[in-house]
Design brief:
heterodimer; A: six-stranded antiparallel β-sheet; three-stranded antiparallel β-sheet; 18% strand; globular; B: mainly alpha; Rna Polymerase Sigma Factor, Chain: A; Arc Repressor Mutant, subunit A; 0% strand; binds zinc ion
Chain lengths: 245, 228
């Protein structure tokens, strides 16, 4: 069963060079999980990077070099990374607070929700290393669980539509990317299966309906219609780059 | 410290057209190896051999050869595409090479060449560096979302090696304006949209230069059905 809808080549290029926002990169990774064709494209685009690395003018290492690397490794236990373990710990604590707001709406216990993730690609499980998704009902048949990635311009979330469920008609503030992870849904334009990568723009009103036999889980990215320019753009742009045409 | 680049005995034999059995008989094996220095063709897989050794045996000597060869390249790559100074670039090189040491067991020579694999690790290290700078959620690493895309490998090594050869040959033959756009995107790790903006070029112009460049490098890209 081949995936029908794909990100465009320019977006795969942006992904392959590391020039996409985290939220969009996650959506591309989710598609790649299902799509052999795009995985092959990605591998070729990464080969360009490998070739450029082969051909670059080398710059001599002037710092601690290999000895420094061995001593860094000697100080580390197998499971911790000397480079980022501190940061990880701090950040995990910081993340607890905002999620708690939604907890009264949690439909299932954390344990059940974690079990529910097991059928999804490992990518999705990696996004919830500490806590299970906090589902919040948007309508009787539609639930959403935000995935915090800390980006202002992009919101990453899981959506779950009940089997046969109809979602409310909705328009888009900005660009919206949806990748089906499990089950399927239809709208006025067609039926979408796992891996299908849908892009919807503002003014593009649609009403997704899940198939009758199975609930549908999607990962989605919504881009706020803001264009960041100015003094922070140099630093932030590598993370916030998306240019809808 | 090994000064020459690593190369297998068999490769030298092949390049010299020498029959190994015959040579062993006359006992000149070592002598020839000492005299001959041949540049490593990255497609021949010597670097991959070393990576596999590191992955399977935690071979420190194999790693030190990889380090000696690749760390100045990764540093050169990072400094070419950003305003990183020596210190910052080397910090990222160390981060990259530590991951090479730790993750070597997951290197799959059927799926990619050593330099492509190291490129992706350096790319992810740079992404994480930018994310830390921008105080993004950092318990999530670029590796977490890039590697999981490859849970289902399906890429044929033969196709892959042919593609890389074709890229190597043709990238140098690209017209200047295509070469500049492609290299800027890769060196800086920025989207084509940002590069268009910075070069003050219409987005469509940049997109078409990308298409032409990819075509000239003979990438195997069938047209994708566009989203409805
Ligand atoms: Zn695809």
């Amino acid at each position: 069963m081949a995936v029908k809808m794909h990100p465009d080549l320019d977006m795969l290029l942006d992904y392959s060079v590391g020039g996409l926002s985290t939220a969009l990169s996650v959506s591309i990774s989710a598609h790649l999980h299902f799509c052999e064709t795009c995985r092959s494209y990605k591998a070729q685009l990464e080969d360009i990077g490998g070739t450029l690395l082969d051909e670059i003018s080398p710059r001599d290492m002037v710092g601690p070099g290999l000895d420094g690397l061995w001593s860094m490794l000697d100080g580390a236990t197998p499971d911790t990374d000397p480079l980022d373990s501190d940061i990880r710990d701090t950040d995990l604590r910081d993340r607890q607070a905002p999620d708690a707001v939604n907890s009264q709406n949690t439909a299932k216990s954390g344990l059940d929700s974690a079990a529910e993730l097991r059928t999804l690609p490992a990518l999705i499980q990696n996004l919830f290393p500490v806590k299970a998704p906090q589902w919040r009902a948007l309508s009787p048949s539609l639930q959403v669980a935000k995935i915090p990635v800390g980006e202002q311009r992009y919101e990453l979330a899981l959506h779950k539509i009940k089997a046969g469920g109809k979602t409310p008609n909705h328009d888009h503030r900005g660009l919206e990317v949806t990748v089906v992870l499990q089950g399927s849904f239809s709208d006025g334009n067609g039926r979408y299966l796992p891996g299908d990568f849908l892009v919807r723009g503002p003014g593009n009103i649609h009403r997704p309906i899940a198939s009758e036999d199975e609930e549908c889980i999607c990962v989605s990215v919504v881009a706020a219609p803001i264009r960041l320019l100015g003094r922070f753009s140099k630093l932030l742009n590598p993370l916030l780059s998306f240019n809808p045409e | 410290m090994i000064i020459g680049k690593p190369i297998s005995v068999n490769t030298i034999h092949r390049k010299l057209g020498i029959n190994k059995l015959a040579m062993n008989k006359i006992g000149v094996n070592t002598m020839i190896i000492k005299k001959v220095k041949i540049a490593v063709d990255p497609n021949r897989g010597e670097w991959s051999d070393l990576l596999v050794k590191v992955g399977e045996e935690k071979d420190k000597q194999a790693f030190s050869r990889l380090y000696t060869h690749f760390s100045p390249l990764v540093k050169g790559f990072l400094m070419k595409g950003s305003s990183f100074g020596h210190e910052q670039a080397e910090e990222l090189v160390q981060e990259t090479m530590i991951k090479v040491w730790r993750k070597a067991a997951s290197f799959n020579r059927q799926k990619s060449s050593a330099s492509t694999w190291i490129y992706t690790i350096a790319r992810n290290s740079r992404i994480d560096w930018y994310r830390r700078e921008a105080r993004r959620r950092v318990d999530l690493n670029a590796d977490d979302f890039y590697e999981s895309a490859d849970e289902n490998p399906a890429y044929l090594s033969v196709v892959q090696i042919e593609n890389k050869k074709s890229i190597q040959k043709n990238i140098k033959l690209l017209p200047r304006e295509q070469f500049d756009v492609i290299t800027k995107i890769y060196y800086e790790g920025r989207s084509h949209g940002e590069v268009a903006e910075e070069l003050n070029l219409p987005l469509g112009t940049v997109k078409s230069r990308i298409r032409l460049a990819l075509r000239k490098m003979n990438l195997q890209l069938e047209p994708l059905e566009m989203e409805g």
